[in-house]
Amino acid sequence: MAEATQGEATIVGGRYRVMPEIRLEEFDRTHIEAFAVEDMRDRTRSLIGLVARRGRPVRDEWMSAIRRIDQPGLLRTIDGGVVDPGDGQGKRYAVIMERPQGGRVMDWLRAEGQSLDDLEMSRLLLRPLAAALKAVHDVRTAHRAIAPDNLYFVDSARTRIALGDCLCGPPGESQPVAFESVERAAAHPAGRGDGGPREDFFALGALFAAALARKVPGTESPEAAADLMLRRLERGSYVALTDRARFGSDVGGLLRGLLSDNAEERWGFEEVRAWLDGRRSIGAMHSTRPQAARAFTFKGVDHSNTMSLATALAQHWREALRVVIEEKLDGWVARAIGDERRGSMIAQTISAGRTDGGAGADATLARVLAALDPEGPLRLRHVSVMKDGLGTLIAVSFLDDDRDTRQALAEMLVEGLPITSLGLVDTNDAQRRRLAQSEMAEFMRLRGFVAETIMGFGLERVLYDLNPTLPCLSPLVADAYPQTVPALLMALDQRAAKAGRGTAPVDRHIAAFIATKLGISYAGALKGVVRQDSEASERLSQLNLLSLAQETQPQVLVPALSRWLVQRLGPVVQSYGAKTTRAWMEKELERAVSTGNLNALRAIVDNPDRRMADDSGMAAARTTHAQLGMAMRRYDETRAARRAEAQHFGRQVAAMVGYTLLLSVLAALTFGSVG
Amino acid sequence: MAKKAAAKRRAKGPAKSSGSSSRLVVLVVMVVLALVATPTALVLAIGMAPSLVALFLENRPGAYTTKCIAACNLAGVLPVLRDLWLGGHLLSQARMLVGDPLVWLQMYGAAGVGWSLVWLAPLVAGVLADAAHDRAIVKLRSRQEKLREEWGDEIGS
């Protein structure tokens, strides 16, 4: 039975069986493990399964688009799905691909491919890869995993090359820093952002340059990477990445076009195809990044443009703000760069913000850097991230349990850093302005999520909002990889068996996941559902959220989860004043538990009419109790008076008896019966 | 408190005046009787002595003690008076009657019955009042207890 379950857990799409017992380490990449795969309908097919290591977000939302692409320059993506390799790390996402037969291109180039000249290399690499990228871009996504270790010979004769998987991991993370456009290279690897065709073609140019040089620059050491970055910022990527290599002029022109730091001027598919077809042209000679009339010297290094300076300032965060203020950065930007608007924005940020240390000063510096380098990543303390990379970096920070990064990302959103940089968009460009406005609205929405502390919101809400296919990361269900509400409910139902009474079935992740999937975008929608003013209301909120989730999936019944919730509803039941109501509730809950319907539980313990009746009953009981007490006190106070009254009455009675006796004697004397 | 005192005063005032006037009436009647019916007055003066004592001692409103004792005392004296009146209403006969211990026992015994009634009736009424009070308190307390049982001790806080 267990074996059968394990077997089912490794099957993707009902057809492809990932074989955890057969590792294919030659296809491993950072954060990706490769396994053999068997096509259960056609055992002759040679396939590999790439399984993302636990803790990496994947781009599975693009699976359906990518698997439709059939291009020679791109390894066929067959299918994708969640598997459990049985290594105790829970379920993970696996991509099933055709198996490349000729090994990695880069290994071959270093060993046997030394004799290839520039033009042969361009024919080998550029034509298939440019076509492959074009196909990827045509389905409105970007590859963003162009790296030497992701380039294979499809056939054993090594005549055809192809790019590998692009779904197992955040976009850009697996690319060497040299393959990233300069503004994205400064960002955290997991926060380089989705990018687009321009970024892919930059990476293609960098790959081509690395193939020509038979090495990837900046990979030797962190210092080498930092030095490369500085040279790229100051002298441009083309100069830094080709490192004064001597190419044929044609190839040099191509590389200049592909490695341009100006995304607008960077070559795309059409220019590369024209070049390959012999219509040779030369890319822009100079980067169009504004150069300063005089350099800004920081830490002994002269910086001639804003991105270079912003990157350096971010690397020395603690000293940066003092330098910015003392060296009059705003004046340098206004005069040396010639950008009055940015200069005054920096001046306003400094005068309006706190500069005396702590989080306030961090926010001030972050805003200054966002204004100084609006094209570059958002920077706050040790974190730098592209605006379109926020989602993946937030995911990685949660998966790696990196609190500092999470805190910094939350602060970025709360402080509105993306809005600061978007505010500097060229107002004369209507299209960019419209785009910036829609992005601003989006970031305002995200800021609202982060600022809201109620369960179902916060940074977790942003996490699931920006990563729609990310499974719920709650430790309660992470192993089950639930990507949908029904899957989450089922995972919780399975977890219920092992859960103790002290474990809450809903944490911030589950709440945010449900809120996202149910499209609850403002906290007011959860008013009356989620309250955290007491233990009882917190537990009731957990039931309410899960029942809301189940309402959308009435076919999913969860008896074990119901039992778990009922075990924890004690404080909720106890919050009712009337003993008979509590007894009734306990009996009804016990009866409803087996149905697995959370709404039934909710109807019992969270009925507004019942709550109101209980409250008014309690109030009436208080009043009556007090009245009875007062009546008893009155009785005690009048006890003596009542006694005296009774005694007085006793005397009256005695007098009456006396009169009766007298009348009896009189009657007797009158009628002669006495004496 | 002030109202109670005023009520007491109002109750005592007429009682006192009616008490003193009734004493005066009794004295006048006794004097008149002594003049016109000396034997009857003698028997009454001796036989009704407990009532007279009660009359002169009591100052409670309504004078129910005096009324009770007097009624009982008179019930004991009336047969003696009947014997006196049927025997010719002579002073010698009155002397003989008041000299008889059984007659004394009869007259004073009846007054004693009156005293007993006056002592016993308020006592019984007081005990009954206390019992009724306790019963009412128990009833109220048990209602409170039921409320607390249903709604918890916090309703009393």
From TrEMBL, chain A:
Keywords per UniProt: Membrane, Transmembrane, Transmembrane helix
Annotated ranges, domain Protein kinase: 1-276
Superkingdom, taxonomy of origin: Bacteria
Membrane-traversing stretches: 653-674
Alphabetical list of PROSITE patterns matching this protein: PROTEIN_KINASE_DOM
SMART domains with a match to the protein in the record: S_TKc
Listed InterPro entries: Kinase-like_dom_sf (IPR011009), Prot_kinase_dom (IPR000719)
Gene3D superfamilies documented for this protein: Transferase(Phosphotransferase) domain 1 (1.10.510.10)
Keyword Chaperone in record: no
Record's protein name: Protein kinase domain-containing protein
UniProtKB/TrEMBL annotation, chain B:
Membrane-crossing segments per the record: 105-129
Keyword terms, alphabetized: Membrane, Transmembrane, Transmembrane helix
Full protein name: Uncharacterized protein
Source organism: Tistrella bauzanensis
